[in-house]
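Sample pair:
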Amino acid sequence: MNNSKIKICGIRDIKTLDCCIENKVDFFGMIFYPKSPRNIPIEKALNLINFSQNKLISSVGVFVNEPIDNIKILITKLNFEYIQLHGEENYNYIAEIKKSKSIKVIKNIPIRSSDDFFKTKYYNNVDMFLFDYKPAKDELPGGNAKAFSWNLISDIKIDKPWFLSGGINIKNINQIRNYAIPYGIDISSGVEDKLGIKSNDKIISLLKFYDAK
């Protein structure tokens, strides 16, 4: 059995969320970024969060360079348990968010080389990190179905919990333990039938395959 928690990102409907709950997924991510094919309207997000209440799954709102006043309003309105920041948000931005409400913050660090891990030192006020593939200029900030070299996580020493993300699917999820056992594994495109459309069958198959190893 594995110690890593599972996060499915880009959830947009109750059916998919219910599948995640039934199969003991630990976190579900909702993306608030208009350029993403996984972007979710606020009303639908509120329905998902209400549905998840008193169930063993945590809600995560995912943002990219969202104006600070907007994100404060959404945190209050939607009552996330976590927010995940996928842009160029800095220490002061995170500190300002944490003033308004008790909420845990996950900061994405795009990775291409081992030097990129040093960026974690600028975010000692976050609760967790997420290490993802570093996108090219014309790519989305996340959900590109691409992975960075997992050799890079073999020797990292990070004093906070961290997620591994980027191009993870049923074909490679059990290879992660060859390099490290992260706090969590973040999956999006790896459980989709097509861009932005989650497959319950793929979620179930991936989790059964992962747990069996």
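Residues 200-212 form the longest helix (13 residues).
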